[in-house]
Amino acid sequence: MEQSKSDIRLGRFLSLVLRHDPGAAGIVLDEHGWADVKELLDGVNRSGRRMDMETLERIVQENNKQRYAFNESHTKIRANQGHSIGVDVELKQKQPPQYLYHGTATRFLPSIHREGIRKMSRQYVHLSGDFETALAVGKRHGIPVVVTVEAAAMARDGVVFYRSENGVWLCEHVAPKYFAV
Q1: Among 20, 135, 143, 158, which one is least packed by beta carbons within 10 Å?
Q2: Ramachandran region, residue 121 (left: φ > 0; alpha: ψ -120 to 50; beta: rest)
Q3: Which of 97, 91, 115 is nearest to 153 (CA)?
């Protein structure tokens, strides 16, 4: 099902609040990134946007990237990954597959070749389990390019990997020796 333009706008605001700036809705996240749903809804509505529980549940359900998760009772919500603020989303260490993929834009390749793939303003580098997803990510940033990452070799060398609830692979850094474009 395709999201309405209104839901897309609300979803973007939700992403801002739950991943980067909870103050935009006048709320506070706990140490694990959870927001109280009632406080979130009140904060979104105070910001001049309109959101009720039904709308929030629909946005979470229909988000194609599965960015958000409710707790069991639907009284709390958080973003699964992608935070630029310090929260511990209780990721579990996982053994990665042989290869993972990083979608980016060609304009970033010179610095990637020099410095590797860095987390930039996020807590982790984001990697995809398949080429097509990485290509779609790269398209959001300009002329796309996909970097193939030798994830199993990195893990053998001691790099820790996590897999978020929505399937995104995460690590601290990818050194240039572990990838090919």
Answers
A1: 158
A2: alpha
A3: 97
